[in-house]
Amino acid sequence: MTNDDAASRNRIDDELARRTDAARAEAGVTDYDPNAVPAATDAPLPFDPAFDTDEQEIESVTARREAQGATTPLSADNPFPPTRYAD
Fold it and tell me: Is residue 41 very low, low, confident or very high in pLDDT (cuts 50, 70, 90)?
């Protein structure tokens, strides 16, 4: 078998696979024909944390907790995390 024969056989196999996928989709055996799906062309949307409401909420909770002193680092003088209960 020469390279031309192998290339021809690969083209025939590819065509058979394409037709089989189309027939399976038409018969309802598979959900869709993978050869009929267009390539994705949408560029990903840029992410700007300044306009993200979840990011703004996280920053506001963090700022509030820091203002309350709830985020002080642990040290020898402060070995336990802060409690939410009154003393």
Answer: confident
Tokens, residue 17: 């696979």
Q: Span 8-23, mean pLDDT?
A: 86
Joined tokens for residue 34: 């993978």
pTM: 0.36
Nearest CA to 66 among 82, 50, 87, 86? 82
Residues in the chain: 87
DSSP secondary structure string, 17-76? Answer: HHHHHHHHHHHTSSSS-GGGSPPP-PPPPPP-GGG-HHHHHHHHHHHHHHHTTTTPPP-S
